[in-house]
Amino acid sequence: MAAAQAVEEMRRRVVLGEFGVRNVHTTDFPGNYSGYDDAWDQDRFEKNFRVDVVHMDENSLEFDMVGIDAAIANAFRRILLAEVPTMAVEKVLVYNNTSIVQDEILAHRLGLIPIHADPRLFEYRNQGDEEGTEIDTLQFRLQVRCTRNPHAAKDSSDPNELYVNHKVYTRHMTWVPLGNQADLFPEGTIRPVHDDILIAQLRPGQEIDLLMHCVKGIGTKVARVASPRLDTSSREVFRNETLKKVVRLARVRNHYIFSVESTGVLPPDVLVSEAIKVLMGKCRRFLDELDAVQMDW
């Protein structure tokens, strides 16, 4: 009985000890354990696999993915982070920048601004294309000049009262339609997700005048640390001499908690569905490669 329990623990549990973690590798492959049929079976997988949505709102989604191998769960996580397409600032044409923010730093800041535009409505720009078109590029203009406020009180020291346009926000970005984009997208739909993101600060006489080109692409997006829903599996309990003798920490190997937070460009459920499509596309390409290798033989 004890031997059977030990085998089941090795197969199903990751054990957190005081000085290390045991059973971290998947071992339930065919023939590894006597008396267990670990051959992959689609019917059994469909029976055991499930996705339980715990919470969903406009910008966040939390769900459990149960009955999946760690490699697949991690692939899904990495796709969510880095391979779901989005529209982002790719090129910045600086006509004039007399602020204290260097051109390169300013361009990097602009590239981090989330753009409210559905990437599914655009195509990838062909490599080598210098000029964008209405099907693959969004264009924004940022032109702000700081001046003194002639109506400010003489004894005032508040920059908000002394100066006009001394803070450059994303609300100063103006969409410049290309081709027939003005007919395809209603006014106000193409814009920064948030209009209160601070880009730079100016003083009288300083000016920022530039043009931004947004294209469809992939890349690591904003990654945030979210509070755990249940427990972090902290091993602090082992610091207590009494508790560490009676407490045992373990986690279910094939149960994963996903917390998806959107930047506001797409709803979180759409991000998940797009990540699934990317994963399915990778699987199809892999199968095509296998078929090609078999044909060569």
Q: Can you offer a commentary on this structure?
A:
The protein contains seven helices and 16 strands. It folds into two domains: 12-82 and 224-296, RNA polymerase, RBP11-like subunit (Gyrase A, domain 2); 86-217, RNA Polymerase Alpha Subunit, Chain A, domain 2 (Beta Complex), CATH 2.170.120.12. The longest helix is centred in the last third of the chain and has 29 residues, at 268-296. The strands form six sheets. A four-stranded antiparallel beta sheet has the order 5-14-7-11, covered by helices on one side. The protein has helices at 2-12, 42-48, 70-82, 103-111, 159-162, 181-184, 268-296; strands at residues 13-16, 21-22, 50-56, 60-66, 86-97, 115-116, 137-145, 147-148, 163-164, 167-169, 173-175, 191-192, 198-201, 207-217, 249-252, 255-261. Residues 220-226 have low confidence and may be disordered. The chain is extended, with a radius of gyration of 27 Å. The chain is of the alpha+beta class and 297 residues long. Helices cover 26% and strands 27% of the residues. It is found in: Nucleus. It holds the Pfam family RNA_pol_A_bac. Belongs to the archaeal Rpo3/eukaryotic RPB3 RNA polymerase subunit family. It comes from Monodon monoceros. Keywords: DNA-directed RNA polymerase, Nucleus, Transcription.
